[in-house]
């Protein structure tokens, strides 16, 4: 989209629950870099998904990416 991003969220349970990524990026930017640390997770296997929303309200979700906390 020509307008750029308005928000980014993550899920560690295949999209059942979403949490915002509070990163310092400028809304309307087409490309962003960010980092985050999911809190409250116990040791185990998880599936990470990211969801980006643009200023027009369009959403795009990534495929699940497995990761392990040990």
How would the blueprint of this fold be written?
Layout (H helix, E strand, L loop, with lengths): L4 E7 L7 E2 L23 E11 L4 E3 L3 E5 L1
Antiparallel strand pairs: 1-2, 1-3, 3-4, 3-5
Tell me about this structure.
By secondary structure, the chain is mostly beta strands. 0% of the residues lie in helices and 40% in strands. The chain is built from no helices and five strands. Strands 1, 2, 3, 4 and 5 form a five-stranded antiparallel beta sheet that branches. The model has no long low-confidence stretch (mean pLDDT 85).
Structure summarized in a few sentences:
With 70 residues, this protein is mainly β.
Shape: elongated
Provide the residue-averaged pLDDT: 85
- Helix tally equals 0
Helical residues, percent: under 10%
Give a short account of the largest sheet: 5 strands, antiparallel
From the structure above, extract its key features.
70 residues, mainly beta
